[in-house]
Specification:
The structure is a single chain. The chain has 24 helices and 11 strands. The strands form 3 sheets. Strands 6, 7, 8, 9 and 10 form a 5-stranded antiparallel β-sheet that branches. Strands 2-3-1-4 form a 4-stranded antiparallel β-sheet, sandwiched between helices. Helix 1 packs across helix 9. The longest helix has 35 residues. Helix content is 63%, strand content 7%. It has 744 residues and is an alpha+beta fold.
């Protein structure tokens, strides 16, 4: 591996014009594809295998044209103070609005509040239900604009009008904090390298990689039904790993220059050693992201695969374009330990020449940990354990209009409906009764309705509405409690339990669906998939790390450390988004259950990103150990060369993720915060404290591997031992081989 990547690095350095041209051409091609691709908007949302999805599919068959999973909107009207919605003027305004809404090309039906009995008991609030033929993700902008225009016309007539439902779904906005995250990354890079040129290389390559990835996703969005969140996730992870991977290689290049090597040789060695760590770190991220497909939620699978593709691009760019740009930079990228004059380079060089230079911070910290491993280990584990305590009260769910900021029309419509009709009115349950083949379907429909009326937490049960064939009917159930409450979830399970009894007695099927039931089913599906997913991802990565480190205990320690950091991060998410700690600081206007996919998503992404630091930091330690240093000294050497870079990489990744906290989409906001805090815990507590403490305690045992397994495993040579031997024998200085390499 190291020897092959060494050749790739030297070739890219030497043929830099060709390499740069290839990447610019790919960026241009992806950009043209994105610009010429049809606009996305046909994204469908389905959850195979869930009862709610089965009910939707059955409705499509038995109620053709009903568009059971089509977008919905509720236009909520409130009369001025002292008036009622039944007053003649207000009633005329509502009827005009209903007529205006009915003219939409994608509208399936509009229910008049006065004929549908959708007026509150006190007469002050009414609502019109709008049903569309397509889902909220497929709805055209013109239909949303028509909906908003109709509401505005009613406002102009003197009514208070708000609109709720999924018809107003829009692309999330990330805000200015995303740019701030990139700016913080730039500052950290300048401080780390002491040079604008060296700092600019990781940013440039990361932006090119993300540009190719996002443009490709945009080009394929329509054909593959990729949602807006897919590109947001790909951008988030692509920026973070793209900057980090390039940072690792540029840092190693400067270290090779400091040892007196020529620039082409230094580029080759940087790609051969740090590049090997980048390859395996990237593989762990890809495994974690692609592994999301085991959950069997198409949207999550597409998000994972798209983000994984962006990571692959980041790895390839780091291995090829970074050495090419280093060739262009020439002497403007200085050896490690030197800085440009404006960063105090002259003073630093004079101090080093006088012998007064102190060991760097990484060396001093590692030396302290090696001397006090038990204290550091206990402090780190107890600290993360304390941070993880809130995770014990984790409540999962999917957001609805009630979790939207109070400044949105969706949230105001939600609150008006709750005031006029009760909180459960915002999450009606649709019960589908399939009595096909039964001798008396009407009796079955009546029995199901009566059974549901006898359950707790039920306000209203509408009469059964059968289809034309009379073999299938829908029943609408209004709970007392709000959609995201545990009480509503219990009601769904109670209805399904009654349905099982009906199935046994009459052979008729009873299915519960609707947005509330769908959210409950998605949460359950994600919970059920968490352990298998964790076993798959951690298992595959564990095997991969055994090959990298040629050790059993080091990969085991890496996996256990990850579990500590991800649990602590989940605890922080619960504290902020569920309990409301520092909610104002994070821009969280409404607390509530944690997004259902958050645990499984954090397990996948955080594990992959955590292995970045593990691989880069520990391979430096193993490299020192393989080259003859004692285990404790190898830990110090690894920190001497890697701590500064890992610290910079972690700060950059945190800044990039934290930039997405400013998003208007609660899902993106929560992911950004969760990943940022997880990187903090994993990089600074686990990898920088717990890992060296454990390695210091284990000593030589840390690198133990059974002889039979050692013989069976392939030698990937991440430490660059092959480069060391080849260089000492002079093989890489052969002009004939150099010329042959140039022709590859």
């Amino acid at each position: 591996m190291a020897t092959f990547l060494y050749k790739v690095g030297r070739l890219a350095f030497r043929r830099r014009h060709f390499v740069a041209l290839i990447w610019i051409a790919l960026l241009t091609l992806a950009g043209v594809g994105a610009a010429s691709a049809p606009a996305a908007g046909t994204t469908s949302f389905s959850i195979p295998g869930t009862e709610a999805q089965k009910a939707f599919d059955l409705l499509d068959q038995r109620f053709p044209g009903m568009s059971a999973d089509g977008a919905t909107a509720r236009v909520v009207f409130k009369a001025p103070d002292g008036q009622k919605m039944t007053d003649a003027g207000n009633k005329a305004t509502v009827e005009d609005t209903v007529k205006e809404l009915s003219d939409g090309s994608e509208v399936a039906s509009v229910a008049d509040p006065y004929t549908a009995k959708a007026v509150s008991k006190d007469g002050t609030i009414a609502y019109a239900s709008v049903k569309y033929e397509v889902s909220g993700m497929e709805l055209q902008d013109s239909s949303r604009e028509a909906l908003e225009d109709a509401a505005q016309d009613a406002r102009d007539a003197g009514l208070t009008v708000e609109v709720g439902g999924d018809a107003l779904q829009t692309t999330p906005e990330t805000g200015a904090t995303e740019i701030i995250g990139i700016a913080v990354a730039a500052v950290v890079l300048v401080i780390t390298f002491g040079s604008l040129i060296a700092a600019g290389l990781p940013l440039l390559t990361a932006l090119i990689g993300v540009g190719i990835g996002i443009s490709t996703i945009t080009a394929l969005a329509s054909a593959l039904e990729l949602g807006s969140t897919t590109s947001t996730l790909a951008m988030m992870i692509g920026l973070a790993v793209g900057i980090d991977y390039a940072l690792f290689i540029v840092s190693r290049y400067r270290a090779e220059l400091a040892e007196g090597r020529e620039r082409e040789e230094a580029a080759g060695r940087a790609v051969g050693t740090a590049g090997s760590a980048v390859v395996f770190a990237g593989l762990t991220v890809v495994i974690a992201l692609v592994g999301l497909s085991v959950v069997n939620i198409p949207m999550l699978t597409k998000m994972g695969i798209a983000a994984a593709g962006t990571v692959v691009i980041a790895v390839l760019i780091a291995l090829t374009m970074i050495p090419a740009l280093l060739g262009y930079a020439g002497r403007k990228v200085r050896p490690a330990g030197t800085k440009s004059r404006w960063m105090g380079g002259n003073r630093a060089e004079k101090k080093a020449a006088s012998g007064k230079a102190k060991p760097n911070m990484g060396t001093r910290w590692a030396s302290f940990v090696v001397r006090r491993p038990i204290a550091v280990l206990l402090l780190g584990v107890i600290g993360l354990g304390a941070a993880a305590i809130p995770a014990s009260s984790l409540e999962l769910g999917l957001g609805d209009d009630g979790t939207q900021p109070t400044s949105t029309t969706q949230r105001r419509a939600y609150d008006m409906l709750s005031d006029g009709f009760g909180p459960g009115f915002n999450g009606p349950l649709m019960v589908v009764v399939d009595a096909k083949g039964n001798d008396d379907p009407d009796a079955v429909f009546q029995q199901v309705g009566d059974d549901i009326k006898g359950l707790k937490n039920v306000v209203t049960v509408t009469p059964a509405a059968p289809n034309k064939a009379g073999d299938t009917a829908t029943i609408t159930v209004i709970p007392k409690s709000k959609p995201s409450s545990v009480t509503t979830e219990d009601l769904v399970h109670s209805i399904r339990d009654k349905g099982a009894q009906v199935k046994a007695d009459t052979d008729a099927s009873v299915l519960v669906t609707g947005s509330t039931a769908m959210n409950i089913d998605v949460s359950q599906k994600l919970n059920d998939a968490l352990l298998p997913y964790l076993a798959l991802v951690v298992g595959l990565a564990f095997l991969l790390l055994i090959v990298v480190f040629r050790s059993i205990l080091v990969p085991l320690k890496a996996a256990l450390g990850f579990l500590l950091s991800v649990m602590a991060a989940l605890g922080a998410v619960v504290a902020v988004f569920q309990w409301g700690w520092f909610a104002g600081l994070m821009g969280v206007e409404e607390t509530g259950p944690v997004m259902s996919m958050m645990p499984i998503f954090m397990v996948g992404v955080v594990f992959g990103l955590a292995m970045d630091y593990e691989v880069f930091l520990v391979t430096r330690m193993r490299e020192a150990y393989v080259h003859g240093e004692k285990p404790s000294q190898a830990v110090v050497t690894g920190f001497k060369h890697g701590a500064r870079v890992v610290t910079a990489a972690a700060v950059i990744m945190m800044a990039v993720f934290a930039g997405f906290i400013g998003s208007s989409e609660s899902m993106v906001k929560m992911i950004g915060f969760g990943l940022a805090i997880a990187v903090f815990f994993d990089a600074f507590v686990v990898r920088m404290a717990i890992v060296p403490a454990v390695l210091a305690l284990l000593g030589k045992k840390a690198w133990w591997l059974p002889k039979w397994l050692d013989r069976a495993l392939p030698n990937v040579d991440v430490e660059g031992e092959g480069l060391r031997t080849d260089a000492e024998s002079g093989k890489h200085t052969d002009p004939d081989e150099d010329r042959a390499l140039a022709r590859v």
